[in-house]
Specification:
Length: 295
């Protein structure tokens, strides 16, 4: 009994001592710096989601209704080629225009006229111009002019032929020699023309109203033994003109000008028609030079 009793006392005293020694044991040392775990790598940013395709129900054409072809192709090559007009490329206000020109008569029964002249115009505003002009006319016998001889009655023609200048001198209306006048121009329309959708020509359209001084050849009125003398002489008369024109701009100082005018004046004639009211249609073509040249 005594040995068993002693073993039990020894075990009871030894267990608390072992437990205290385990609590006082030193803590484990941290791992060296070289063994530290690597820093975390940031995750890549998410890519933006692609826009959902726009269906036909939300297209610009349906939202805007009926649109032009240029608007339908706003992001295509047509919009890149065709630029809108954004102001005047050519300015006329405060400038002078010198324009040599040539004109030809239209639908003239007796004389085909070729007029060579020039005009000087000043523009106090962008759309309004006042000018002076002068020209010299060269007359040629029109192809429709004929001299016919009659046999018996006035209805029986013997034959017709083309007249000479001497035979028509002063005997037929429309024989202009000199022309001058003052005009007012009004140009309310400015625009541009597209050539094959690549090149553009700027232009303006204008109206003309003015007064004219006309020198022409008319019949000689002097009588000898009660009979008029054959031949003609020069007369001076007043008149007016009205017309329209187009001006195409090459650059900021030179243009091509074309006009259609109606020259209205009164001529002397022979009995039984002592006077003629003339409406002479003239087509004119010329170059214009503007100064100061502009910037």
């Amino acid at each position: 009994m005594k040995p068993a009793f002693r073993l039990l006392l020894t075990l009871c005293a030894g267990v608390p001592m072992l437990a205290g020694a385990a609590d006082q044991a030193p803590a484990a040392a941290p791992p060296p710096a070289s063994a530290a775990a690597p820093a975390p790598v940031p995750a890549p940013a998410p890519k933006p989601a692609a826009p959902a395709p726009q269906g036909p129900a939300t297209s610009q054409e349906e939202e805007a209704g009926d649109v032009s072809e240029v608007d339908k192709d706003a992001l295509g090559p047509l919009r890149e080629r065709i630029r809108p007009v954004s102001g005047h490329m050519f300015l006329k206000k405060g400038r002078f225009e010198i324009s040599p020109s040539a004109s030809v008569s239209i639908r003239d029964a007796f004389y085909k006229k070729y007029l060579f002249g020039a005009s000087l115009t000043y523009y106090p505003t962008e759309t309004l111009g006042v000018g002076l002009r002068a020209g010299y006319a060269v007359n040629a016998i029109a192809g429709s002019a004929q001299i016919c001889t009659f046999e018996g009655s006035a209805t029986d023609t013997r034959g017709c032929r083309a007249p000479t200048k001497g035979e028509l001198d002063g005997q037929a209306p429309g024989q202009l020699t000199l022309l001058g006048g003052a005009d007012v121009q009004w140009a309310p329309i400015y625009g541009k023309l597209s050539l094959l959708a690549e090149k553009f020509v700027h232009f303006d359209m204008y109206g003309i109203l003015g007064a004219s001084v006309v020198q022409y050849r008319g019949p000689e009125t002097t009588l000898v033994d009660g009979q008029p003398i054959a031949g003609g002489k020069s007369y001076l008369t007043g008149g007016g003109n009205v017309g329209v024109g187009l001006r195409f701009f090459f650059n900021r100082w030179m243009t091509l000008r074309t006009e259609l005018r109606d020259l209205i004046y009164v001529e002397k004639g022979r009995e039984p028609t002592p006077t003629y009211l003339r409406n002479q249609i003239l087509f004119e073509l010329g170059l214009s030079f503007f100064f100061p040249s502009g910037s």
